[in-house]
Specification:
The complex is a heterodimer of chains A (141) and B (88). With 141 residues, chain A is α/β, with parallel strands linked by helices. Helix content of chain A is 35%, strand content 18%. The chains are: A alpha/beta (141), B mainly alpha (88).
Chain lengths: 141, 88
């Protein structure tokens, strides 16, 4: 089972992601802000962090920067989950060092598999057969 | 609780949240609060389609892209469109 932290201040979006990921077989943790995320990361090391960009106080770009600066967290896969979907936005996320990019709105049917594909995790990590559709997520490579 | 029950519960929460966000957008227009219009239209654009409201996502994105480039009266027209889509 993969361990994942989702950081999003939009409660409805976060709840949807949590629901889909739990159905997909992930162990899911939630944070509403960068501050909460770092509190969690002091005692946990998830396989993946799904990081919203538009966050209060500390935006997703700054959160990523601090994750990469910290020796204990720099190797964690970090995926931008964002409604900023212009081509220039994607390039900005690539340059910042995200491992991948998932545009909002979330596609419920593909969501769990998109994360696996971006991280190069085997599909067998997902248990829900309804989520076996080909992913449309893109890596930042 | 099966998969559909869980998703339907989330849809209900989304509908309640959407109604609140529409009211907040209306107040933001009255207050000339472009920051709030920008923030909420961004959130709606990134959420509504997931819950079966693709047209609201499209319209909210149009509003977000138009923030500060249009008049408050024109922003109110976008918000009215979103509100009408929700009722339908």
């Amino acid at each position: 089972m993969r361990d994942i932290l989702i950081v999003d201040d939009n409660a409805i979006n976060r709840q949807l992601a949590v629901y889909l990921l739990k159905k997909g077989g992930y162990q899911v943790h939630e944070a509403e802000s960068g501050k909460q995320a770092f509190e969690f990361l002091t005692s946990h090391s998830p396989d993946v962090i799904l990081l919203d960009i538009q966050l209060p106080e500390m935006d997703g770009m700054e959160v990523l920067k601090r994750i990469r600066e910290n020796e204990s967290t720099r190797e964690i896969k970090v995926i931008a989950l964002t409604a900023y979907t212009m081509r220039s936005d994607k390039e900005r996320f690539e340059a910042a060092g995200f491992d991948g990019y998932l545009p909002k709105p979330i596609e419920p049917r593909n969501f769990a598999n998109q994360i696996l594909d971006i991280c190069n995790f085997p599909r067998s990590d997902v248990r829900d057969p309804d989520q076996s559709v080909k992913s449309q997520g893109t890596t930042c490579e | 609780m099966n998969r559909d029950d869980g998703f339907e519960e989330l849809r209900t929460l989304f509908a309640e949240d959407l109604a609140a966000k529409i009211k907040t957008l209306q107040v933001a227009v009255t207050d000339s609060d472009w920051d709030a219009i920008d923030r909420i239209s961004h959130q709606l654009g990134g959420t509504a389609k997931s819950f079966g409201y693709p047209d609201i996502s499209v319209t909210a994105r149009e509003l977000e892209r138009s923030v500060r480039k249009i008049s408050l009266e024109e922003a109110a027209v976008f918000i009215k469109k979103i509100s009408d889509m929700f009722v339908l």
